[in-house]
Amino acid sequence: MARPWQFITLVVVMMVAMMAGEMVTQAQCPPDYDTHPLILMSLDGFRADYLDRGLTPALKTLADKGVHATYMNPSYPTQTFPNHYTIVTGLNPESHGIIANKFYDPEFYATFELGSDESLKGRWWGGEPIWNTVTNQGKKSATFFWPGSDVPIDGKYPTYWVPYNWTISFEDRVDQVLEWVSLPVDERPAWISLYLNQPDHEAHSYGPNSVEVNNELEYVDIIVDRLVQGLEVKGLTECVNLIVLADHGGAQAAPQDNVIKLIDYIPDLFDLAYSYVGVFARLDPKDDSQAGEEAVTTPLSCAREGLRVFLREDLPTRHHFSNNRRIEDVVLDVDPGLTVSISYDFDDLGFHGYDNYFASMDALFVGVGPDFRQQVVVDDFHNIELYNLMCTMVGIEPAPNNGTLGSLRHFLRNPPPPPSLPQEDPPPTSLFPAGDLTPLLNMSLCSGDLTTTEDWLSSLNLTQTQQEEAEGRHLPWGIPLSGSLPASLTLLHHTDHVTGYSESLKMPLWTSLSIESLRLGSPAPQQWSSDVRLQPSTAQTCPSYLPLQSLNVSMFPLFPPAYSEDPSLERVPYLASNGVPVSTYLESRWGQLVGQMVPQWLQLHGPLNLVLGPVFDNNADSFPDNFTTLGTPEVPSDLFIVITRCLDPGLTSIDLCPFTSLDSQAFIFPQTQFVTNCLASERYAREYSAKVSDVEIVTGLTFFPDLDYSNRTSLVLRIHQDIWPLSL
């Protein structure tokens, strides 16, 4: 039996040991490390799932210790230079201008190519890389081989930098980083980057599934461990934040027939276009007329499985890859494992550059250090979000960028307060008029205009309480904000949907509905009629659509008639206030999505909320066109839909779903397609899927305004690499 004094002695010893442990931990961080330097380490081509091969124990330890993302979504195209520069600027490649590893600028009359003298000129590099942001705010930076760091961007270099020299060993690179992070406080860089060209180099030669790549994984893990152990030896483990990531993943070459030889489809290619080949292939027709574009796109349209052809302005909005003069007119998109050449074979067994939604392009992300949370696995995220995170960690204000400020704040132990949405008064409601309706019954001059009032019109006359009930049901997370859009928005309430109607555009800007079960509404003959809640000055007329017939465009109901709850109100979806101009092509594709897939999701996943509306992005810059210059009716460039479900089963209504269980996917379907790619409906939906934030950017709307910042940001930035399952 232990004596009391022995127990007391044991407790004292344990307390001293614990205090000593705390002192050791505190002693690991010298007093002049009040602010924590950030090291950014890139392992080129380290696919997210390489970590699961059991070959990288040092990296796995870091991932288990700190913040580990299931994957980091690279930017399109998934090439080295565009993505490395995106990481340090927060800009999409179309915005910073490094649109590929090799490209031509028609104003410079010059070609950018890796390693060339031209690539070292600052005129190619747009945006503000973080090393310039650091310098501009009175701090120091250091880079060891980062794309752009050896270029005078805006006349500036990092404080410390090394010209690219592939012969410098990885060990020497790490040792230099350790020297930088150990400098006296007035010389020490706040932000440091380090680049290793493996395992990508071996993956190209031998393929991601090769022994050679596995060997490189083991080697780069040794290098990561060298850095970590070096920090530990210097007593800096608790003083320095470390991010280890990759720019993209990699795909194994298809076992056979993996090279698409353009000359097989376009024998006179050399006469017709300039070509950039490889995974991310582009064509620049020498004749920039429609006929010139057709000469190179028609032979490739539906030519073989795994090949898709786009004019740059027709690329899916989610790519944000249309708004730069350096992007060639025609872009070829291929499945993983395929590549494009003029007429020759490729020896490489590994490729990247594909659509960033392909899982083989997923990139590594691990963050560890005193400012990162511990033992946390986070959802996937887009690499444009990193610049803002790094600026926060270094204590500087970010330059304008394409990321969302605070989107990765959940990575941090002590994040700054979240940004707040701007306050906005709700739009007014267009009320059912009192008195004689006769003058309003035919103001839109439509074939279905009434000559006298009918009973169904009373459904438009909702009381204040009924309007509030409709908003609570169909807008459960708030009325979408329209910001600075000069839309002159007014609300039109119905029992089965609520519409935000633009009086300036004379069409709905959005309509929102919650559905709990399959509805039995049946389409009525398309006899459009006037909406008596509007005024003649704000109502669209049916004759105004007549000039659009030559474009195969007609008035189309935004609120789908098939989702009407009351069969006796079959005329309501054909009020002119619900009409948008839609082509026969889009009507067909939209029917596949809204008429076929949505009912399947409803049956499988339970109650849904839908927000649908037009997109006006006719210059394909991913931002809304100037509403003040639009005609009436203006033909939208696209239609969007945001679909929200609840991940918790068994709910009878979507508004009962806990905010943390909401899940949203979005789609932006184009009005027309210059090239037909013969995609089945599900494949087409995946191609033109989007993040909710993509819809927000291109429309100027803000969704889920009543949610708290974390839940709203999680929803709008969520990436779905594929559409929701349509069956069990």
TrEMBL record:
State the superkingdom. Answer: Eukaryota
Q: Name one GO molecular function term.
A: nucleic acid binding
Show the InterPro entries listed in the entry. Answer: Alkaline_phosphatase_core_sf (IPR017850), DNA/RNA_non-sp_Endonuclease_sf (IPR044929), ENPP1-3/EXOG-like_nuc-like (IPR020821), His-Me_finger_sf (IPR044925), Phosphodiest/P_Trfase (IPR002591)
Going by the UniProt record, its keywords in alphabetical order are: Glycoprotein, Hydrolase, Signal
The positions making up the signal sequence are 1-27
Q: Extract the ranges annotated as region (Disordered).
A: 407-432
Ranges for domain ENPP1-3/EXOG-like endonuclease/phosphodiesterase come to 494-710
**Protein name (Swiss-Prot/TrEMBL):** ENPP1-3/EXOG-like endonuclease/phosphodiesterase domain-containing protein
